[in-house]
Amino acid sequence: MLKPVIITLFAILGISTVANAQSDLAQEIGIFAGPVTLQSDFGQRKNLDTNVGNSGFGIGVMHFINFSAANNHESFFTEHFKVRSELSFSHTQLKHYGQWVEKNPPSLAVTMLKNMHASTTTLGLGSQLEFSFIKIHDFENTVGSFSPYLSAGFQVNYYSAKVGSRLGDLTLPNVTIGKYLTPSDGRAHGFSTESGVVVSATGGVGVHYKLTTMSDLMFETRFQMYSSDWIDGLNPNKDIYKENKANDWQVWFNFGYIYYLEF
Predict the structure, then answer these.
(1) What is the pTM of this model?
(2) Could you tell me which residues come within 8 angstroms of residue 186 by beta carbon, excluding any fewer than 6 positions away?
(3) How many domains is the chain built from?
(4) Count of Cβ atoms closer than 10 Å to residue 104 Cβ
(5) Does residue 226 form part of some domain?
(6) 111-160 residue pLDDT tens
(7) What integer pLDDT is reported at residue 99 of this predicted model?
(8) Which end of the chain is more exposed for a tag (fewer CB within 10 A), N or C?
């Protein structure tokens, strides 16, 4: 399980070493924070209450390699791309929302769903390539300017999910509905309190604002698709319950501050 983490660490350290060895590369560091919403097996798909209720928070630190600094041989790549590495953390509390828990009068199944809850924590390490729509030099030389961008990359993520019910032991049929008691994906049930390491793909859209000569502000919306459906601790058997289609994924709304290093 540690192999993906080790590979990622070596990749990031390798990029940083190359950056330090090249005089035409600059480096930037930053922090970010903001709300996150986990799209999972908790709640109703495409439901506003689910999206708002199953929200948490995320924070992180980031490092940029800027290829355009002191570069007298401008190219499309050096003027429009940066490499961003980051370490991020998120935590989310989860409940069931939507039509299945709003029925009146509430049935036993509705009561069991209402009392099921979970929490999940993720720690991610990875890199992404950031594409700026305007020239990086033009943006850096104009305080008060905006630079919209797109990004894509990958992360290695450690997750820890905890699932429970206010009614008692989840393995009991009078506490949990049959859908989640059925064995799934090598687990004894369709729920699991567990920790593990997975990979994820990231894609984002955002904008940088030139605050001062040596600093930027950032706002970003980022989508993150995990390679597992156990991030939330819930994964009904896909062979039986066909509505359980996709792996867990998360949306980040990041506000950040970036500082340019002078070396």
Answers:
(1) 0.86
(2) none
(3) 1
(4) 6
(5) yes
(6) 999 999 999 999 999 999 999 999 998 998 899 999 999 999 999 999 99
(7) 83
(8) C
